[in-house]
What does this fold into?
Amino acid sequence: MHKVHVEQDLRGKNDAIAEENRKHLREHGIVSLNVMSAPGAGKTSLLCRTIPLLRGKYSIGVIEGDIQTSTDAEKIATLGVPVHQIETGGVCHLDAAMVHSALHSIDLDSIDLLFIENVGNLVCPAEFDLGEDSRVMLLSVSEGDDKPKKYPLMFREARLLLLNKIDLLPHVSFDVQKARREAREINPKLDIIEISCAVGTGFERWIAWIDSFVSEAGHR
Amino acid sequence: MHEASLMSNLLAIVERAAADEGGGPVRVVHMKIGELAGVNADALRFAFDCMSPGTAAERGTLEIEKVPLAILCRVCGATAHPDDLVFVCASCGSSDIEIMSGREMQVDYILMNDEAPAPDGSGPKARRGEV
It folds into this structure.
């Protein structure tokens, strides 16, 4: 028998398409954020509360990723922004090829800020570059403060952690300081903002973060 | 959870590598999976057993080498294998850390039979009259 060195990454094909997406988005002057979390942590609620606050400032587009159903896209559509639903048909994450197809169904000249809502999952989405500028993740306090150590890659890859459902703190045993400390051990550069999509806590800081990110991403 | 789609990528990589060598059965596929990669080795083996029939890796063996997390401090150059997932340099306290290994998800090498198929397309078995 003889040995044939291969040394090829299984994500190589995905990463190549992701680079094309990134180039394509930048050519159109679009800043993009990949929004990730466990199911039910509040990704869609975040977008529903955020988009009206950004009206007039940015032209927003949304790509919704779900295993099944288009209910999230229908909610976003009521806000009057272009939205495209990707139904992954059982796949546990979005990949670059899915986003590539979705980009063809959005008028890229009409938007300058794109939110990509990933499939709810704390594991797999972290592995797949979509071509986004950066990653925002949500952790809701009802999920437990042990999640950073249990799902390190997601926390390592995010630029911003939104600690959501902060209004529920009196009712759950979630140690905010522990979650913050352990998330920063994994990712010392992680920005962390405490929010509540239900009552609007922390949204001034979150909107300010978006403004600062968009102006920094200034490749446009 | 996406081991089947990863396996499909793996088999495509293996088929191409085997074809570049003139084709023929692949006996061993040796892959590296990093500690942070979020991939389950048992699920990968299961996917390999289900999906390799009909490919160059049919009847081959999947070997999985687990790669521990290794980090490098960009400030003082110290390296470490943090068991506790603390990405802060234990020597100088810097958080400017690079992950050297632990994110791998790759086909490292394959092992193939030495005997290449004949140019006319008949394999070693055919030439030996074993068809």
User: Anything to note?
Assistant: Chain B touches chain A through 37 residues (CB under 8 Å). Confidence is low (pLDDT under 50) at residues 122-131 of chain B.
